[in-house]
């Protein structure tokens, strides 16, 4: 009997030890796809997508444990709307926009997807946000889908620089509007001369001044390049030590607002 009890005791101790090792060695499953994911301190993650499959919006978030802080904007207006929120549970979150009195006016309720079509077998962390957007004024709800397009380290107060980037963004938006309107003279004013360029047709050009830029405008900014630029949103743009990127990198700006040309 003593031997049987000894064997049972040893078995129980062995089982408890394996359970303990499993708890400390296996990856935690208590968190959802993005909650608890290691973030670089001060990292701002930029997303872009749509509400209701037709209203294009951008969103920027800082994830700090269970807390979420950031802002979103409509592409059409490019005006930031402050957001704050938290993770509801291991997989879901809620973000709220408030008016001046602190009352909630809009909410994003959803989740960070762990898997998505087009990502093969990749386990996602913070790349995709999906859920329901609600306007509190009339109770209307719409689905939303946002995909990460870039991330930067810093703060909104020091975006692109100490002034928050408002002056720089205003300059880049002026360039964007000029390209959209084919205002060649205004576009030419953003470049530093002289510069050299190899056109899409392989022609090598040396552009000495604004007049030469205007005369070669269709070669420097062909329709393909124009379409990429005007499809971009000149707000909360990706930036690094090289400068600020617009239109998937077809054009870069320095921090004075001039075009950086190869």
Can you offer a commentary on this structure?
The chain is of the alpha+beta class and 262 residues long. The chain has two domains: 114 residues, Quinohemoprotein amine dehydrogenase alpha subunit, domain 2 (Lipocalin, Beta Barrel), CATH 2.40.128.120; 102 residues, no CATH class. Helix content is 24%, strand content 34%. It is built from six helices and 14 strands. The protein has an eight-stranded antiparallel beta barrel. A four-stranded antiparallel beta sheet has the order 11-12-13-14, with no helix packed on it. Helix 2 crosses helix 6. The radius of gyration is 26 Å and the shape is elongated.
> What sequence of helices (H) and strands (E) makes up the elements?
HEEEEEEEEHHEEHHHEEEE
- Classified in CATH, the superfamily of the largest domain is Quinohemoprotein amine dehydrogenase alpha subunit, domain 2
The total beta strand count reads: 14
Tell me the overall shape: elongated
**Average pLDDT over all residues:** 84
Number of helical regions: 6
CATH architectural category of the largest domain: Beta Barrel
Overall tally of structural domains: 2
Assembly classification: single chain
Amount of helix: 10-25%
* Strand arrangement across the biggest beta sheet: 1-2-3-4-5-6-7-8
CATH class of the largest domain: Mainly Beta
Rounded to the nearest angstrom, the radius of gyration is 26 Å
Query: What can be said about the biggest beta sheet?
Result: 8 strands, antiparallel, barrel
Q: Give the N-terminus to C-terminus distance in angstroms.
A: 86 Å
CATH fold category name of the largest domain: Lipocalin
């Amino acid at each position: 009997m003593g031997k049987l009890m000894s064997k049972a005791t040893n078995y129980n101790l062995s089982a408890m030890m394996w359970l303990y090792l499993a708890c400390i060695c296996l990856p935690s499953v208590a968190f959802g796809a993005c909650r608890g994911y290691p973030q670089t301190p001060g990292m701002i993650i930029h997303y872009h997508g749509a509400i209701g499959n037709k209203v294009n919006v951008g969103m920027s978030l800082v994830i700090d444990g269970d807390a979420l802080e950031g802002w979103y904007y409509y592409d059409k207006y490019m005006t930031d709307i402050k957001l704050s929120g938290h993770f509801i549970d291991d997989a879901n979150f809620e973000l709220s926009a408030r008016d001046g009195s602190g009352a909630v006016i809009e909410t994003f309720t959803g989740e960070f997807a762990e898997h998505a079509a087009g990502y093969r077998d990749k386990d996602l962390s913070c790349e995709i946000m999906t859920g329901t957007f609600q306007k509190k004024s009339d109770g209307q709800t719409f689905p939303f889908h946002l995909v990460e397009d870039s991330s930067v380290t810093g703060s909104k107060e020091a975006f692109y620089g100490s002034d928050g980037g408002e002056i720089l963004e205003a300059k880049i938006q002026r360039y964007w509007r000029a390209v959209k309107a084919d205002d060649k003279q205004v576009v030419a004013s953003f470049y530093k001369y002289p510069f050299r360029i190899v056109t899409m047709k392989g022609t090598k050009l040396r552009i000495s001044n604004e007049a030469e830029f205007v005369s070669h405008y269709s070669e420097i900014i062909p329709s393909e390049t124009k379409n990429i630029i005007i499809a971009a949103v000149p707000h909360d743009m990706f930036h690094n030590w090289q400068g600020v990127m617009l239109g998937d990198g077809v054009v870069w700006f320095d921090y004075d607002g001039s075009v950086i040309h190869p």
